[in-house]
Write a structure and sequence with these properties.
Shape: globular
Structural class: alpha/beta
Largest sheet: 7 strands, parallel
Number of strands: 11
Organism: Paraburkholderia kirstenboschensis
InterPro entries: NAD(P)-bd_dom_sf, PRISE-like_Rossmann-fold
Protein name: SDR family oxidoreductase
Radius of gyration: 20 Å
Helix content: 40-55%
Strand order of the largest sheet: 3-2-1-4-5-6-10
Order of helices and strands: EHEEHEHEHHEEHHEEHEEHHHHH
Number of helices: 13
Distance between the termini: 45 Å
Strand content: 5-15%
């Protein structure tokens, strides 16, 4: 049977890589977004306000899909607002598609804050022992991921489709204008250091510097999403998903610096959030963009200081177990250093950072 997918958030770091993956294996793919950023070429673009049931219903009227992938969220001022808005977005799409009778599977991408709690609640609950495992369940805190899951589970029961939930760690991948993009943020930061003569200072916590950790390449996540959407072993299951290797930032940070030809500063255990030190970065980046004829002079479309600060500033070890996926049949692997360096090479080729 033809596999016709709709990706919610197709222009983002996860959605765009997923679109490329599905199209490469013969899927018919459409993308639904707010329309602020173009979806990948070669796919149907659908524009709607996901926070409005009426807008979503009108945009999807007369359209049928076999699979839906949720890769978008809308950041709000409080977690209660995150719950209301992001839970509603899932509900609006599933209500519009569920009644068509053609939907076979819905996949939801959340993240490891399922185990950690939301940004504003890190370490306020009893964080599970690492490596995180799916069986550890939910934290006793408000979390919009849980609301999204509950909306997914209820709709699956109502309309008769299967589901999967995917929880990546920090995602590395190519996307412009993404709100959660550590790889591109670190590339911009290192470029600024190189051209202003500043050292490449690790901005995070001692726990992150010293502990084992892992990350998720957006391309591997795309393959995981496709696998779960087509494998009987993955029906109605939740999965953590990471690259499969582990590292310490104290080992990787000097290697990132070496790639860009910048000096690192000795780590003294003090957290130095990037957001606090980037007041002049916009002007500096505009000058660099003009000097090297870069495609994007607006640093706000490339770097997300707050998100990188949140991830690197965590006061606890964050490490993920992939046993459940392995036992179910997903055996893919991605080197995390290679993921960074391949992204940096592409950013140079796309004229987003200097060669």
């Amino acid at each position: 049977m033809e596999k016709r997918a709709i990706i919610i958030g197709a222009s983002g770091i996860v959605g765009s890589n997923l679109a490329n993956q599905l199209r490469s294996t013969g899927w018919n793919v459409a993308g639904l977004s707010r329309g602020r950023t173009a979806v990948p070429p070669g796919m149907e673009a659908i524009t709607a306000d996901l926070t409005s049931a009426q807008s979503v219903s009108a945009a999807l009227a007369g359209k049928t899909f076999t699979h839906v992938f949720f890769t978008a969220w809308a950041r709000q001022a409080t977690e209660q607002e995150n719950i209301r808005v992001n839970g509603g977005m899932v509900q609006h799409v599933l209500d519009a598609l569920g009644t068509t009778g053609t939907l076979r599977h819905a996949a939801l991408v959340t993240g490891l804050k399922h185990h950690l709690g939301p940004f504003e609640a890190y370490a306020t609950g009893a964080v599970p022992i690492t490596p995180f495992r799916e069986e550890q369940g939910r934290q006793n805190v408000d979390n919009f991921y849980y609301e999204q899951e509950d909306r997914l589970f209820d709709a699956a029961a109502q309309y008769g489709f299967s589901w999967s939930v995917h929880r990546p760690h920090t995602i590395i991948g190519f996307a412009i204008g993404n709100a959660m993009n550590m790889g591109m943020t670190l590339a911009v930061y290192a470029t600024l250091c190189k051209h202003t003569g500043q050292p490449f200072v690790f901005p995070g916590s001692a726990a992150q510097w010293e502990s084992l950790t892992d990350m998720t390449d957006a391309r591997l996540l795309a393959r995981h999403l496709e696998w779960a959407a087509t494998s009987p072993n993955a029906r109605n299951e939740d999965f953590n998903v990471v690259n499969g290797d582990v590292f310490r930032w104290k080992w990787l940070w000097p290697r990132l610096a070496e790639y860009f030809g910048v000096e690192t500063a000795p780590f003294d255990g003090v957290v130095r959030p990037l957001e606090n030190h980037m007041q002049d970065a916009g002007k500096q980046w505009a000058d660099i963009a003009a000097q090297f004829d870069l495609r994007e002079s607006d640093i706000g479309k490339l770097a997300s200081w707050w998100h990188t600060d949140a991830d690197l500033g965590r006061p606890m070890e964050v490490l993920t177990d992939m046993t459940k996926s392995r036992k179910a049949g997903f055996l893919d692997y991605q080197s995390t250093p290679d993921a960074f360096f391949e992204l940096f090479d592409r950013l140079k080729a796309e004229r987003l950072i200097p060669r």
